[in-house]
Structure formats: structure tokens, C-alpha cells
Amino acid sequence: MTAPATVLKRPRSGVDAGPDVARFDWGAIAASLDSWGCATLEGLLPAKTCRDIAALYPEEMHFRSHIHMARHGFGKGEYRYFKYPLPGLLADLRQDLYPYLASVANLWNEKMGVAQRYPLEHRDFLQQCHAAGQTRPTPLLLQYGPGDFNCLHQDLYGDLAFPLQVAILLSEPGRDFTGGEFVLTEQRPRMQSRAEVVPLRQGDAVIFAVNDRPVAGTRGTYRVKMRHGVSRIRSGQRHTVGVIFHDAR
Ligand SMILES: O=C(O)CCC(=O)C(=O)O
Ligand SMILES: [Fe+2]
């Protein structure tokens, strides 16, 4: 069985296979990212598209590598990195989400006193990655079964890292699986860590900080370090697609 054209269609002659991301309230999303280091895009993908993407998992031709998390101490469960060219829908989503996030990332760097600024088009940022030897695509499809979990981690794959990433839940909690919450932790200097659980439904996306982000304190801005993971799946099967904006070495 091959995947439906709606997912695989390549961006061509102005036809965009991805969902319309301009319809979200990007002012509110930026405010949530500033306050909490995460924000959700409710109903980013319809259920049918979620099923179509999850159905790619066994089709090896779409992927460059296959990771069994337990073998690396990453948790339990598995994932596959897509190869280039990405399925059209993911290529479009990566390209269309990036400019909104680049504005947030540039403000964050300004607040943190970091000189680096990100170009406002994804293709320009990818060129920087490729020039730095980070040429392998990082979007990935994850699959979890009962008892699986994803340890707290950061998706860093070289010196160049875009500070925000996106994960889209492809399965429906309560129906397709139970447990398996998306979790973020925030390590604060000289303080105890803060945990955040992000409730998601099928088709919802979470945008979150990959690593450092600025927090406004009473004595100026300080930096916190974020990590993300997934709590234990209690029953059923859970699929996610991850959109990371930097490429890997
Ligand atoms: O399965 C999830 O919700 C998290 C996946 C993940 O770690 C990622 O997309 O980077
Ligand atoms: Fe991750």
C-alpha cells in the first residue's frame, strides 16, 4: 500500500500541500512561547491527514534511518527520520511555520544577549546548516506501544540549532492510546525545575523551546534550559510527527 497523494504531493507551481498556518493567532502564540516556552496549534491537521502520515511508518522508502530508543538509552519505542525530499505536506509545514518562529527566536536571542539572528526564510537557514556540514533531514515519525516512553531530551544535532521545534500528535488520546503525555521540563538557574504537561488531541501541534529560552525576572532576564519527552504509554499505540528546523550532521 502506498501513501495517499495528499501527504506526498510536492510543493509545485504555488500549490501548497500543507495546512494554512496563517489562520492561527500568532500574537497569542508568541506570547505563550514567551511566558511558558510552549504553545499549541489546535487542529493543525485533520484526522484523515494524521492517519495518512502515521501510515507512512512501515514504508521504508520515505526514511533515512530507523532508531530503536531502548538501544540508545533514549527510552522505549521507535522512530524514523525522513529522507529528502520530504513528503510534500511536511516540506510545506516546515517552510510555512518557520518564518513565524524565526521572529520569536530572534527576539529571544536579543533578550539573552546572543548575537546570532536567524534568516526569515527556512531555505536560507537550511543553506547555513548545509554549509556547516549539517545536511541530513531531521523531521521524524515516532511510534510508541504499551509501556513505551521517551526520556527527557533535546534534539540538537550540531553547532547550528534553531531554538524552536514542533511535534504533532497523530493519534487520539483515550481512543487510540492512554497515558503518553507530552512533557516539558524547565531547568532554572539556582532553582528547582518546573514541569509542564501539554494536553494534545489528534491533529494538535505543540511548539516548544529546543534548549535555552529567556525568562523575565525581577532583576532582568535569565536563561532557562528546556527538555521534552513523553510519559509512559499505558495502552494502545501513539504516533507523532516531529518537525525540527535544523538539519543534522
Ligand atoms: O512523541 C512526542 O510527542 C515527542 C517526540 C519528540 O521527541 C520530537 O518530536 O522531537
Ligand atoms: Fe524530541
Can you walk through the features of this model?
The protein is an alpha+beta fold. It has a single domain (25-243), classed as Sandwich (Jelly Rolls). It is built from six helices and 15 strands. A hairpin with a 2-residue loop joins strand 12 (212-217) and strand 13 (220-230). The longest helix has 25 residues, at 88-112. It is globular. The structure holds 2-oxoglutaric acid and fe (ii) ion. Belongs to the iron/ascorbate-dependent oxidoreductase family.
Give keywords.
249 residues; alpha+beta; Jelly Rolls; six-stranded antiparallel beta sheet; binds 2-oxoglutaric acid; binds fe (ii) ion; oxidoreductase; DUF2086; Oxoglu/Fe-dep_dioxygenase_dom; metal-binding
- Count of distinct strands: 15
| Share of β-strand residues | 25-35%
Pattern of helices and strands:
HHEHEHEEHHEEEEEEEEEEE
Distance between the termini: 32 Å
Q: How many structural units, i.e. domains? A: 1
Spatial strand arrangement across the major sheet: 1-11-7-15-5-4-2
State the low-pLDDT regions, or none. none
Helix content: 10-25%
Q: Sheet with the most strands?
A: 7 strands, antiparallel
Number of helical regions: 6
Helix-and-strand structural type: alpha+beta
CATH fold call: Jelly Rolls
| Name of the CATH homologous superfamily | q2cbj1_9rhob like domain
The residue-averaged pLDDT reads 94
Could you say which small molecules are bound to this protein? Answer: 2-oxoglutaric acid, fe (ii) ion
CATH class: Mainly Beta
CATH arch. level architecture: Sandwich
Determine Rg (CA atoms, Å): 17 Å
Shape: globular
